[in-house]
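dumping these here so i dont lose them again. two proteins, back to back, each one seq then structure tokens. dont judge the mess
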Amino acid sequence: MTQQRLSLSSMIAAAAAVVTLGLPGMASAAYEHPANNEKGVIVHPEHFKSEKTRAQVKAEAEAAMRQGLLSYGESNYPIRTPDAAGPGKTREQVINELRSESPEERDARLRLYSPG
């Protein structure tokens, strides 16, 4: 009797795992097709059909962010403001800044970007 209960519960758990793990694959099955390569799939983005425009999706995301419906990590995506970045620097300006930096500034920069 115990053997049957254990096997029935394990079969239910296995079925639930298959359904849970299979749902993401079914969602993208329209434009991802099996392939004999390292990745295992080949993506055809032209097969993806969307009912919404990019502006509609962005508006929905901003509304969800304002309402607090996004989980941690989803709501901290930076919103681009074109005027906040400024005009930027040319390659020559950056090279001249690197050449004219002091030894202390250079050490601080190298410590900041060093792996370790």
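---- next one ----
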Amino acid sequence: MDVFDELLRGVRGSGAVFGRSVLRAPWSVRFTDGAYLTLCLPMRGGGWIVPEGGEPLRVEVGEAAIVRGPAPFVFTDDPAGGTGPERAGGVRDAGGGAASDTAPAPEAGAGPESGFPTVLLAATYDVRAQVPQRLLQALPPALVVPDEQDCGPMRDYLEGQIGGGRPGEQIVLDRLLDWLLVCTLRDWFDRPEADPPGWYGALGDQVAGPALRAMHADPAHPWTTAELAVRAGVSRTTLAKRFTELVGEGPVAYLTAWRMTLAADLLTRPELTVAAVARRVGYADAFGFSTAFKRLRGESPSAFRRAAAATDPVETAAPAG
């Protein structure tokens, strides 16, 4: 499993909140449920994503939009026409998911301007775990990615599954949405306008890549720069220089930060003691782990655990190895 796979492991649909809205102009849908990630897929027509305090982004059929929360945003047919309740005939609060409706299927490419409704499919993900947050924090408030893989048939199949009442419908929807979300994120980071984190580019590097994969494959191992250099087939100096150039920090500093990210999610599991979490991320005793955790996260493991317990519990997975 590479770094991208591991970070996305916590971003999965499991009864994800989703909805299919048929929107007739003038319309404006507010998303106010505080989701950490929202995937918007126009199945017909198109509209404008208006993030709070941000510039409108046009999204149409054949494109996918991702909005990073938890700030609210609006999907509207006309950002210049206002997005408040004064707009007649179309303002709806999506809340926990867009409302459903039915309408005759318009011709391909039809939208509000031709008198046909826009059909929007939206799915929200409440991603609070620390591991996927490392990926989500690298995203802009909103992004739009064109479909360059000819996913039209998959989109049609996805829309056809909604409300069919067949056994396993929710699982099918979850997995299809997972697939679309991962493809959209991967395509975004490959676009020239994206600003991917340093580790993303380092994955394909012949020097830094093997070291990154080794650390993520076994984060509890007592890795040293010298041992990682052997994995990369270069000298310790060469690895340290190249890794720092690409990732922004040395291998050992990166490993420590990654261990603390894993530990933060493990600390939300009440069955694990602090000492058990320390061992899971490569520390022989709780004292050394607590010192490192407080230095990087600004609070002790116990204080972090108490704060996490005060919020909704998050299901996390143990680190690989």
